[in-house]
């Protein structure tokens, strides 16, 4: 882990330690998760509850020489909460056709069980996905936690830490949405931009500078996708006039001062963006992976935003440090005012 990444991570960890929250880890049968839980608990970054078979977790911890004595472990199939949670889930989803029997079956899943613990206030947030696709993590979140007020969309961002410190905020940039929304309309794109600006401000304590990306800069190109980005930018400016946002911009005009000055001489961003909002999932997902692999950047995410309570997904290729940082971010989000 390089110095910049370490500095970003240390800032996140310090914020989480200042107000530790109760976070669910839903992949309790994974050794990476067990190791992360031990670190999180011993360093008082968060209060951890693991959803898994207790004996399996304890055996794994013993084999790894880890102390989980301060970590709560709940068996989703044998615990004191199931009866109430089954009834609560049934009441929540019965108008969608959910039966009590089906609610009981769903709550055998650590993700559904953990999400209900968050919904009912017995936990502050959840992290899962080390062993399953993003859709499996977000399905119960969208069904149970639901979208926060004043948000018309749940979106995601990646925290990108580039070795080229001239970009972003000393190399730190947020990319959105690179994980969830395939083709957001202009209103949804505007909401993604404001959500990400709020996340950036809260997590980094730095002022957000938002570039709405396109293949066009300041009218150099035309078409439906360009119009969408232009309209989204205007919507944000009307909604949040204090926010520094510009679009449509090509990526080089957003990031390189002399290119920004040449392509958009009247612009206020001046090639100094620290948030890049992509017009669709294709460009966003491709873009962040290219920066991560070819640019040798670190990428944390996808971190969700726009939910009533924080539920975050892990890459199936995550390592222990990724899990620790994601839990820290989730804990910070749990103490944040709802964005929107």
Describe the structure.
The chain has 340 residues and is of the alpha/beta class. It has 2 domains: 3-150 and 308-334, Rossmann fold, CATH 3.40.50; 155-294, Isocitrate/Isopropylmalate dehydrogenase-like (Rossmann fold, 3-Layer(aba) Sandwich). The longest helix has 19 residues, at 186-204. 51% of the residues are buried. The strands form 2 sheets. It has a 6-stranded mixed β-sheet, sandwiched between helices. A 5-stranded parallel β-sheet has the order 3-2-1-4-11, with helices on both faces. Helices cover 46% and strands 16% of the residues. The two termini are 33 Å apart. Mean pLDDT is 91; it is low at 1-5.
CATH fold-level label of the largest domain: Rossmann fold
Secondary structural class: alpha/beta
Number of structurally distinct domains:
2
- Please count the beta strands (DSSP E, at least 2 residues each): 11
Overall residue-averaged pLDDT value = 91
Helix content: 40-55%
Would you list the SSEs in sequence order as H and E?
HEHEHEHHHEHEEHEHEHHEHEEH
β-strand amount: 15-25%
CA(first)-CA(last) distance: 33 Å
Pick out the low-confidence regions.
1-5
What's the CATH architecture name of the largest domain?
A: 3-Layer(aba) Sandwich
User: CATH class of the largest domain, please?
Assistant: Alpha Beta
